[in-house]
Design a protein that fits this description.
heterodimer, A: alpha+beta, Arc Repressor Mutant, subunit A, Glutaredoxin, four-stranded mixed sheet, 9 helices, 8% strand, B: alpha/beta, Rossmann fold, Ubiquitin-like (UB roll), de novo design (two linked rop proteins), 3 domains
Chain lengths: 233, 434
């Protein structure tokens, strides 16, 4: 399989954003992976010719970053955070259960080609631990049973909606989004869950919110009037 | 302390991430204010506010901007470090998800101040929904005339590119980030020269954290004096605290600097029911842990340092008595080992051997010599590695053994999982786990 003409066009558009071509290397590798589900020799060659580097130079960069994968990915990549906090709160139990449930280990894909499992590091969602991802979309507050349901749904091709984000599509489509291609899904998902709003809700309940707002309004008005006096003098 | 929602004030509105939702509450008001001033005046206001970098190091923001040489004939660049990957840090990602326009608005003022016409937002790759939201915010800002050529008729031009990483913690180190943004392996550069003199494409560059830059619009609108009215003299302002771990209500709590962990814990509903605090980590795994006796230490750079730790990202992780400190530290070291870029020997080799010995202690087959050697290796890495990742890797164990030496020594005969049932630490302990 090779990179499609549509992807080549997206690569050219991405290149145009940067003052120097080589800076586009990482998004271009994401785009190559969006077509091929892995970083292949064909993908490397395509990207190398786009940015004017040798295949070896591009390979040296691609192998440094964990998100660029050498082995062909399943339709979906499911990650379990096993950094300390998530691991303690249940990530280790979830990981063990999922590997037994799927019969595959880290970086391996179920025989139906649907799900690649991987152990992942901190996803900047510790308030929602234990955290998982499906095609890099958040799956918050996971349990062993919820984790199994996620994998079962993905393998059965059922609709699965991420936490704070859109419905899961595929690894390849997520890679295209990560590369910066607009998928019109920015409005999807409700970010305002109990964790995100914990402090705000408390502040609205105890009056701190109103105090903070009036404090700001007063400060802004005082500053504006002093600025205008300064300008007049 | 009161809670002071500022950056998080409107996250309960479903469209808080859109330009309409943002402008409903005064969004982009700072653009006219900033562009109506001289660039150096904007730098002066931010200096005067005392704002310090919220990425971990706490460097004064206005001073950093002031280091950029002027009239040097080179292009200048602003680069936003949105590569939030520090274990325990989870405040920039929620901010960009719920309120990306505050970042874009801050980028305009900061770029103008340092006379940059090109800004990059380097977002870690693993967060497609955040990348969507930031890209969408940038597009909306272009359409509204806040970005592009001749912004609001001011004659100031600014282009913003959202750039995705690909899973490398080291790229949160500012010079590794710049190498990555130039299309190389993300490895740190020798400093000096500092990025303010020779950064992106060897041109003067300012690298700032997301929360830092998102705080700038409110300073311009409400004034430096208003911002300084919060916090301490050396650590002024407002902070997004993110409390995680064994607490009843983990989440985002925005409050003044100087808030204590006791207050944060109270807001978070305390330690989960039926349990007690064992230790807490003030700002990511790269800072030493603290215990119950430090709950009243104010969250300022100077007070947390005096207590023997660092403020870091200001995102406390809280662990109760079911937690094995050996298991916790071992897992962090496995992370640093995996993320070490391999450029310098102390970090590359040191993290390898630290993990080797820590795993023995976790398995209950460590030796007394291992404990001494871990301390020794940690001190050999600290201050001798190329960048702060090595220092970070050398931090968790010495921090832990200061308070938990007896527990760690039990790793010479008993496995961590036998000392602390892993199931008891999970949030679903007591609930049917399967």
């Amino acid at each position: 399989m090779a990179v499609t003409e549509q992807t080549r066009e997206q690569m050219r558009e991405t290149l145009a954003l940067y003052p120097r071509q080589r800076s586009a290397l990482m998004p271009l590798l994401h785009l190559a992976q969006a077509d091929e589900g892995a970083i292949t020799t064909e993908g490397i060659a395509e990207v190398a010719s786009m940015v004017g580097l040798t295949d070896a130079e591009v390979t040296a960069v691609a192998t440094f970053y964990t998100m660029y994968v050498e082995r062909q990915s399943g339709e979906h990549r499911v990650g379990v955070c096993i950094n300390s906090l998530c691991a303690l709160l249940g990530g280790d139990e979830i990981w063990t259960a999922l590997t037994e449930h799927c019969g595959v280990g880290h970086g391996e894909t179920t025989p139906d080609g649907k799900v690649t499992l991987e152990r992942i590091e901190c996803q900047a969602a510790c308030t929602h631990a234990p955290v998982m991802t499906a095609d890099w979309e958040f799956l918050d507050d996971m349990t062993v049973s919820k984790a199994k349901d996620v994998v079962d749904a993905l393998r059965a091709g059922e609709r699965l909606v991420s936490s704070r984000g859109p419905a899961i599509r595929s690894f390849k489509e997520s890679e295209r989004t990560i590369a910066g291609v607009d998928d019109s899904l920015a409005g999807e998902g409700d970010h305002g869950d109990d964790r995100m709003l914990a402090g705000l809700k408390l502040a609205k309940a105890n009056g701190d919110f109103d105090t903070a707002v009036s404090n700001q309004t007063n400060a802004a008005q005082a500053k504006a009037s002093s600025d205008s006096r300064g300008a007049g003098s | 302390m009161p809670l002071t929602p500022l950056l998080s004030a409107h996250w309960d509105e479903a469209d808080s991430h859109t330009i309409d939702g943002y402008r409903r509450h005064g969004g982009y008001e700072s653009v006219a204010i900033a562009l109506g001033m001289q660039p150096d005046e904007v730098v002066a206001v931010v200096k005067d506010s005392g704002l310090r970098g919220r990425g971990g190091a706490g460097f004064p923001t206005g001073m950093k901007w002031g280091f950029v040489p002027q009239g040097d004939g080179k292009p200048h660049y602003l680069v936003i470090n949105a590569d939030e990957s520090e274990p325990g840090a989870c405040k920039d990602i929620p901010l960009m998800l719920a309120n990306p326009h505050s970042l874009v608005e801050g980028v305009i003022a900061a770029s103008y101040a340092i006379r940059a016409n090109h800004a990059f937002i380097y977002v870690r790759g693993e967060v497609p929904h955040v990348i969507r939201r930031v890209n969408s915010a940038v597009s909306e800002a272009y359409a509204a005339g806040y970005l592009g050529d001749n912004i609001q008729g001011s004659g100031f031009d600014l282009d913003v590119v959202v750039h995705s990483g690909a899973g490398a913690y080291i790229c949160g180190e500012e010079t590794a980030l710049l190498d990555s943004l130039e299309g190389f392996r993300g490895q740190p550069r020798l400093k000096p020269p500092f990025p303010a003199v020779a950064g992106l494409y060897a041109s003067p560059t300012v690298v700032n954290n997301v929360e830092t830059i998102a705080s700038v619009p409110s300073i311009l609108v409400n004034g430096a004096q208003w911002y300084k009215s919060f916090g301490s003299e050396k650590s002024p302002g407002i902070k997004l605290f993110a409390v995680s771990g064994h607490v009843e209500r983990p989440g985002i709590y925005e409050a003044p600097m100087g808030t204590t962990m006791r207050e944060l814990l109270e807001w978070a509903g305390g330690i989960r029911s039926g349990h007690q605090l064992k230790f807490w980590v003030p700002g990511g795994s790269s800072v030493p842990l603290l215990t119950e006796e430090h709950l009243d230490v104010p969250y300022t750079y100077e007070d947390i340092a005096a207590a023997g730790s660092m403020l870091g990202t200001g995102t406390p992780m809280v662990f109760d008595e079911t937690t094995s400190v050996t298991r916790t530290v071992t897992r962090w070291l496995e992370f640093y080992k995996h993320e070490s870029c391999g450029k310098c020997t102390p970090c590359r080799e040191g993290t390898y051997w630290l993990v080797d010995m820590l795993r023995r202690l976790q398995a209950g087959v460590g030796s007394v010599d291992d404990i001494a050697t871990i301390n020794d290796v940690s001190s050999q890495i600290a201050g001798r590695s190329f960048c702060a990742l090595g220092d970070a890797a050398a931090t968790p164990f010495p921090g832990a053994i200061k308070y938990f030496s007896e527990e760690i020594a039990e790793g010479t005969h008993t496995a961590a999982d036998d000392l602390f049932d892993p199931v008891a630490a999970t949030i679903f302990s007591g609930v049917s786990a399967s």
